Each structure stands twice: as structure tokens, then as C-alpha cells.
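Re: folding output
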Amino acid sequence: MTATARSSDTAAGTSAPSAPPAAAPRRNRRHPSLRIGGGISPRLYIAVAAGSFLLLFAIWVAITATGAVSHLFLPSPAEVLDRLWGLAADGTLWSDVAVSVGRIAVGFLLATALAIPLGILIGTYSFWEAAVEPMVDFVRYMPVVGFIPLTIIWIGIDDSQKWAIIFIGTFFQEVLLVMDNVKRVPRDLVEIGYTLGERDRSILGRIILPSAAPGIWDTLRISLGWAWTWIVLAELVAASSGLGYRITTAQRYFQTDTIIGYLIVLGILGLATDQVMKFAGRRMFPWAER
């Protein structure tokens, strides 16, 4: 067919086949909590979290009920609860909790009181970052357990030595995290402050700190979680009370019910403090919520 014929066919109303219509976009029917970046309601969050704990508890019950594992190595939930009840009834559990919480509080507060201003300093000024950050990085890679004999030699075996272990385990990590929080403050905001004639102190107090505060609070929450894990190590040597001391003593006599029970107590206390700090953070920094 010639070009003239094709032109006449088109003029007569015969058109070339049209392209198929574009496929309609598929609707994502999944629940928002199952999508990337999706949200979840508080009620569903609590239900899913509780379901995870119940599933773990059911697996524990099933394993111990079948007798597949000796109760010497994995006691049943009933045996663990009975052991905890006995330790609570004679006051041992509450005394150990009080001692360990006190040690964590002192060690963590000392670390935080020094880590926040130092982290802000090295996150704000490049000179101080060069002077301090490599040294902090150097020390934070040293295993905390290696400081136990040194702290005993330097400090002794009283509570000060336990505070020092918790301090060492949290301070150096906390400094670097606070530094990163400060560095995430948009540089444009700082430049605007200088343009308006603000001095460093004013920029720090009115721009940098308010912008970095939500991240710093999250850093404290994460660091407090580390402090709960270091308490067992801090009470490993030269202690006569505390959750970590009781776990170490129980290990010598194969009291696995006590070990598991105290680990559960540590988990509950750590989870409780974490959720309290999350709740407080949402109230103090509502603008930081997505």
C-alpha cells in the first residue's frame, strides 16, 4: 500500500490501532503497620507486643512440659515464679533491686553529666572534635571487663568501683552519640543566627540545643539501656548484694531458676524505664514526632 492510499484510509475514518490503556495503579491493601514507614495505633501496638511475649511464654511452657530439656538447665515458668516469690517474701529480691538501681542511677548520672556538655562541645566546634573525638573513640573500643581489675586497684571494692564500671560502659558511647545529635542540626539555621548578629552562646542556647534536644533525649534512653546490662558486670567481683551478684552466686550452685528469674526482673526494669523515657520524650518534644 502506498503512502497516498494510507492517507486516504485515514481520511476515510480508518485509524491505526491505538495503544492499550495504561494499567490502573494497584492499591496497597496491606495494613499501614505492614507498609514501609507506616504507622500503628497505640492499641494495636500493645496487642502485638503482648502477643509476642505470650508466644515466647507458650514456647517456654511447651519445652519444659515435654521434658525435652532437664529442669536443671531450663526450669519451668512455675518454678521460676516460685523462686522469685520466695526471694521477694524474705526481702532478698527487693534489697537486690534497690542496691542495683542505686548503683545504676549514680553511674549513669555521672556519665550523663559529663557526656552531654562534652558531646555538645565536640559536635559544635571542629577544633575540639579533633582534640577529643579520636581519644574517646580509642577508649570506647577497650573492653569494659578489662577495667575491672584496674578499678579495684585504683578505687577499691566499695560502690565507687561499681559506679566506675557503669560510667566507663556508658560515658564514651554517650559522648559520641550526643556529638552526632548536635551535628544533625541544619547548618542553615546556624548561618541564619550569624546573619542576624547572634553570638555563639546565643546560637547554642536558642538554635542548637532546642534542635538537638529530642535526639539527645533518645541518646540518654539508649545509654540507660546499656547501664542496665553493665550492672551484672559491675557486680561480678567484690560485691555482696545486687541483681548481678545474685546471678553470679546462683551460677556457682546451678540455681538456674534464680538466674532466669533475675534476668526477667532486669528485663522488666529495663523495659519499664525505656517506656517511661519514651513517654516523657513524646511529652517534652511533641514537634519531633512524625
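--- second protein (sequence, then structure) ---
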Amino acid sequence: MNQTNNSIPAGRQQKILDFLSGSDSISIKEAAELCCVSEATARRDLDDMALAGLLERTHGGAILHRGTGFEAIYTEKKSVMIPEKKRIAKAAAELIRDGDSIFLDSGTTAYMLAEQLSTVKRLTVITNNLDIAYAVRLDPTSIMIVTGGVRRDGYSALVGDIGEELIKKLYVDIAFLGADAVNVDKGVFNSNFMEIGMKKSILNSGKKRVLISDCSKFSQKALTKVCDIEDFDCIITDEGIGEEKRKVLEEKVPHLIVV
């Protein structure tokens, strides 16, 4: 009797790889529906493929295996983990008070945080994020300062010495940073060298330093280290990080918020 392609693990795995070639990620449910199998079978397939180095497992699914130097363009980043990023942004906004000064970096979660700030009074927002600079509306009593620098095409970010020199003169109430990858043991990483100087300057500018990063970043790898986990006063992430990583973070930072 001839087996259908769906009943052969190799056939199912190829379908999953074909799907991932055109999408940023796949959930267990999507894999099950794609291959017409149970979610338990889909989970085993994803686990087997991860062991073979074909993809990387995430909470509830998988992403295509990528090298540490890979970085998705800004529009792709904005389209993934949206519910989690919105919850993180809302929790981050609750840390901000009228009259505060804050720095928002170039990440997509920082943009969603900026969208939460229209009712905050006498706020000073400093950013190198061009989407924030262009599209976000603040209360009339608030102001926005854009760092200047070299535009990084495809990533809506300003980088370089011009911006770094400005940031070195600043001291804000809260500096909010995102990350391309977070390793609970080794620290926070970025996929390229161009933004490292800016991110380090942003971190140093903050009286309080807050990492805003969804759970998918805790399963990623990236090329260049920005800082240690312990350099942050607070980390805001979502419940997808799992209990093991949560316990490690609770030991390393004074304040962990899981939404």
C-alpha cells in the first residue's frame, strides 16, 4: 500500500520547511493543519527537525534556522509576536509618569510602547527610531527629541557617532531597550555591529534601564553582545519564556515583569 506524503515524516518536514521559506515562523497548530496530523505529531516533527539543525524551536512552534548574523528587516519584525509585544508595551507604559524623560530605541516593541504615551503629560521622549519620530503623537505638553545620525535603511533606525555623542550628554529617567537575542546566561545580543555603539550609549543614559523583549528573542542567537542581563534594573517579557528562564531572570534582575 502506498503511503501518502503526509504519513511520511520526511514529507511532512519538507512541507514545514517550504512553509517557513515564505513565513517568519510556524506554530504547532499551523504545522498540524498543514500536514493533516495531530498537534502531538506536529510537535514531535518540530522537535526532530530542531535536533537535525533544520529549524529552531520556540515556545509553541518554530522558526527557520538562521545564523547569528541574520537580521529580519523592520517590517518583518513588526508583523510577528504582535499580541505579546502589545502586552509588553502596555506594562512598560505603566512605569512612566508625568514629567519623566525616557529613551526609546529602534526596536518594534519600543514603537508599540510609544503608541501608549499620548496621554502622558510633560514627557520628554528621545529616540533614534524613525517610525516613532514620524508617526507617534504625544500630548501637547510633551516633546520629542530625535538623535540624528546615519539612517539605516530597512530598519527605521539612526546610528553612528552623531547620535552617540548626543546620547552621551543625556541622563534620562528610563532607558528602554529591545534586543535581537537574549541569552539568560550570556546576556543581550544584537545581529549587527552598526547599532552596538548606539545601544550601549542608550543603556548608559538611563537612571533606570528596562529591557523590553518578547519570548521569541530568548530562543534566538545573534552576533554581537550589547550587555549583561545584570545591567538592567527591569526586564519585561511575556509568559512564553517558560518557568526555567523565568527563575534565572528573577535571580539576575531586581524587577521582572511577565505579561
